[in-house]
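pls design
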């Protein structure tokens, strides 16, 4: 069984994207598709980026732990809101801490917004960033528009049947990507 890490990237008070991370964790667990761990950037308290982890003389315990969890993951799902047409600084900070660790790592995206477009501008930027650092991304994604209407704070969707059907397609494609990366 594969191990998936879900990065919950928002560190804002009252964040809604974390509910989507919880939902995806529940979905993977309920369907016994993988072991899952949420890497909640709100709990890491990374310093503002000064240098990649490999160039830091005294890296924090949190940064080393994050690195090891990424290495141990067969794939990573990034769940992020779109802030002002982009991704949160907390996520870019965490991505930039690592480099070799992302190489050939299967990475999938779930972008979230309170509006109608489901974070598609953040998705475009994430695809480019992860391509640039040589991660393996793919075109299937899990955008969530009007997140405040579609999930409660615990990750329970308001329309479970519809959300599960959409998640099934997304996760199936992601698992195929992970499988292909092992060949």
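designed seq:
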């Amino acid at each position: 069984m594969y191990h998936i890490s879900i990065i919950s990237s928002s560190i804002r008070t009252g964040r809604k994207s974390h509910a989507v991370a919880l939902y995806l964790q529940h979905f993977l667990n309920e369907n016994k598709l993988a072991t899952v761990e949420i890497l909640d950037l709100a709990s890491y308290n990374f310093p503002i980026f000064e240098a990649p982890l490999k160039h830091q003389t005294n890296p924090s315990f949190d940064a080393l732990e994050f690195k090891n969890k990424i290495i141990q993951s067969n794939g990573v799902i990034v769940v992020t809101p779109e802030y002002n047409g982009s991704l949160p600084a907390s996520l870019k900070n965490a991505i930039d801490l690592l480099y070799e660790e992302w190489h050939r790592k299967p990475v999938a995206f779930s972008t979230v917004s309170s509006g109608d477009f489901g974070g598609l501008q953040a998705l475009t930027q994430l695809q480019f960033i992860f391509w640039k650092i040589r991660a393996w991304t793919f075109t299937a994604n899990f955008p969530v528009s009007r997140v405040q209407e579609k999930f409660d704070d615990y990750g329970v969707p308001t329309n479970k049947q519809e959300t599960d059907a959409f998640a099934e397609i997304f996760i199936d494609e992601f698992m195929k990507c992970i499988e292909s990366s092992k060949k």
